[in-house]
């Protein structure tokens, strides 16, 4: 019951902030759509006409996952920084629920709300390009759920660093380009990247949306890797977060910015 109340409160908070700062929300959406239009124009102008359709399909899937990765993995770092600037970080740490539970529910609520935006961007992108992907929800959903758990783990790593260092905006900006690179690199080029937080998930979703692969065609080895990544990175993220939280408490870094 406590988890449900916490989730409802944070979902309401995230929704109110998106609505109240609507110009900023719309600017974010328009910016990402403009980035996609630039990619689409580049493929049309200098791309190989014989592979143009498949390149556009790859671009749609990769850019959507890049947006998702940024919203999930960067968001919690910004949350910690904002709470520190407002002077409310210490109050969160004093909550009976614990700051990590608050951040988990914030991650879930912001992911759900941003996912609505992502789905809208996906369909607008397909409409713009005329390339309609295979949206097999039953196959994509389990892949996406396991991938998101590993993303949450990385988000907690970033949150832990943010609690101690406070000013991590430059790092988060650099991370955007790292996420873009990992999203766009196919596993056929770098198979060892399968054990990074979300690369395997992106690769599987590409196969589903572009090649029409169904869940019955995906081997158990792939889901084993996804499950391992989800458990490993989420556990590692919590360990790093608790460690950094302990450092911040010992040094008295929670009470001031």
Walk me through the structure.
With about 260 residues, the protein is mainly α. The protein has one domain. Helix content is about 80%, strand content about 0%. Helix 2 crosses helix 5, helix 3 (about 50-85) packs parallel to helix 6 (about 135-165) and helix 3 (about 50-85) packs antiparallel against helix 7 (about 170-185). The radius of gyration is 19 Å and the shape is globular.
Topology, element by element:
Blueprint: H1 2-20, H2 22-46, H3 52-86, H4 89-93, H5 99-129, H6 137-165, H7 169-184, H8 199-211, H9 220-251
Helix pairs in contact: 1-5, 2-3, 2-5, 3-5, 3-6, 3-7, 3-8, 6-8, 6-9
In a nutshell, what does this entry contain?
By secondary structure, the chain is an all-alpha fold. The chain contains nine helices and no strands.
